[in-house]
Write a structure and sequence with these properties.
This protein has 4 helices and 6 strands. The chain is about 30% helix and about 30% strand. It has a single domain, classed as NE0471 N-terminal domain-like (2-Layer Sandwich).
Length: about 120
Amino acid sequence: MPRPTNINLHQQSRVLEIEFDNGESYQLPCEYLRVYSPSAEVTGHGPGQEVLQVGKEEINITGIEPQGNYAVKLIFDDKHDTGIYTWDYLYELGSDYEAKWRDYLERLKAAGHERREVD
């Protein structure tokens, strides 16, 4: 799997830019990273226990902490900081962005929530 060569947080636009050693790069919105956090708070403790995250349109990342040489911990301004984003998972989030984002929007709608558009 590709490994990041550069990770750059653009706080004003709330985007995490990640460049990989295979030449690919992704610009992942902080909201997307928060709603797909790999933490138990979001994923649950087993299949079917996922917790839909709502109201995260204006979320931002306040810190990025390396976790060995395999991952980072993202610290969000809603105090969420328990997800460990491995290089493989960040690559998956980037390469599958369109499908995952569409799935999130569909799950929001099915649950009766509407996502607010923000600048």
